[in-house]
Amino acid sequence: MSLEKTLSQIRELDREAMAKNQARLDILTKPPGSLGVLEEISLKLAGITGNPMPTIGDKAVVVMAGDHGIVQEGVAAFPQEVTPQMVLNFLAGGAAINVLSRHVGARVVCVDIGVISTVSHPGLIVKKVKTGTNNMAKGPAMSREEAVKALEVGIDIATEQVRNGCTLLATGDMGIGNTTPSTAILAALTGLPVGNIVGRGTGVDDHRLALKIKAIERALEVNQPNPKDGLDILAKVGGLEIGGLAGVILGAAATRTPVVIDGFISTAAALIAATVEPRAKDYMIASHVSEEPGHKHMLDYLQLPPMLHMKMRLGEGTGAVLAFNLVEAATKILHEMATFADAGISGAL
């Protein structure tokens, strides 16, 4: 589906459904608001889906994989060959995201949107926009047309998942070097100093951290991304998997489907999606706060409170799928808790 058509389909939350949901929550056998975030999620799900009594059925995490030209600047602790190797690990079911997805009963959907090498596997969805981004320290990571195409890949993936019965989506990522463009996106949007928000990613040493800071600062200086134009930011200092995940978020919003956001890279994609279409933010649920120092700044910018504080920094969608059980629990209190009238309890607690 085209980006333009998708954006036109993103609506405000359904306030009538939310009011009915709140009325139901208020007559359950508990003090008002006493289930805290679970009640907030329940209310949000009603607004997203338009159903005052939402339910969760099929669940999937979309893991987008892409490579980054910025690794030429020595910003990554691992070689680029790890990207396709990890993609095969996802497809074999051996990665952390596979374990945690099995734990919560979710599917892993793996998409090659920009891996440099060719990965052959019957379970892989190949939607390669290009073979890795350009080195953003020397010029734009991709063209604006490629940025649009990356968004549209994600939109198509999300739309297909929902069409096939998916009721809850999550965003996951794989791409050596991808904390570098994620930091650049945050800096471009907020103007925060790179040195204050940069992290060590997969564990770079002090030398590589210094290279990373210089590379990001150079990319911002060379490209001058427009903070009011999400496509410009994505094209100049983003990544293909980041664009794909932003598209998943936009596609979820257009189909009135909740999407759980993972860590630093996934939230960089959320920043892009919310800049392209601010109403998309209403369809996002923040799962956890990463150990990456910039992640808290991202969540604060989006005004999305995280549910979990797990000291995680893996990516892949791992924090997002952990939160699936909480999202599902929020729907079960609506359907399975007794009301005061059902339980024969006089008055409110």
| Strand fraction | 5-15%
The string of secondary-structure elements, in order, is: HHHEHHEEHEHHHHHEHEHHHH
Rg (C-alpha, Å)? 20 Å
CATH architecture of the largest domain: 3-Layer(aba) Sandwich
Specify the CATH homologous superfamily of the largest domain.
Answer: Nicotinate-nucleotide-dimethylbenzimidazole phosphoribosyltransferase (CobT), large domain
Would you report the number of β strands?
A: 6
Domains (count): 2
Shape call: globular
Strand order of the largest sheet: 3-2-1-4-5-6
Helix content: 40-55%
Task: Explain how this protein is built.
This protein is of the alpha/beta class and 349 residues long. It folds into 2 domains: 3-54 and 333-343, Orthogonal Bundle (5,6-Dimethylbenzimidazole Phosphoribosyltransferase, Chain: A, domain 1); 58-329, 3-Layer(aba) Sandwich (Rossmann fold). It has helices spanning 3-8, 15-26, 37-49, 82-92, 96-104, 144-163, 179-190, 194-197, 206-223, 230-237, 240-254, 264-276, 293-302, 318-322, 324-336, 340-343, and strands at residues 58-66, 107-114, 125-126, 166-174, 259-261, 284-286. It has a 6-stranded parallel sheet with strand order 3-2-1-4-5-6. Helix 12 links the parallel strand 5 (259-261) and strand 6. Helix 2 (15-26) runs antiparallel to helix 3 (37-49) and helix 3 (37-49) packs across helix 15. The longest helix has 20 residues, at 144-163.
Summarize the structure.
The protein is of the alpha/beta class. The chain is built from 16 helices and six strands. Helices cover 50% and strands 10% of the residues.
Give the arrangement of secondary structure elements.
Blueprint: H1 3-8, H2 15-26, H3 37-49, E1 58-66, H4 82-92, H5 96-104, E2 107-114, E3 125-126, H6 144-163, E4 166-174, H7 179-190, H8 194-197, H9 206-223, H10 230-237, H11 240-254, E5 259-261, H12 264-276, E6 284-286, H13 293-302, H14 318-322, H15 324-336, H16 340-343
Parallel strand pairs: 1-2, 1-4, 2-3, 4-5, 5-6
Helix pairs in contact: 2-3, 3-15, 6-10, 6-11, 7-9, 7-12, 10-12, 11-12, 12-13
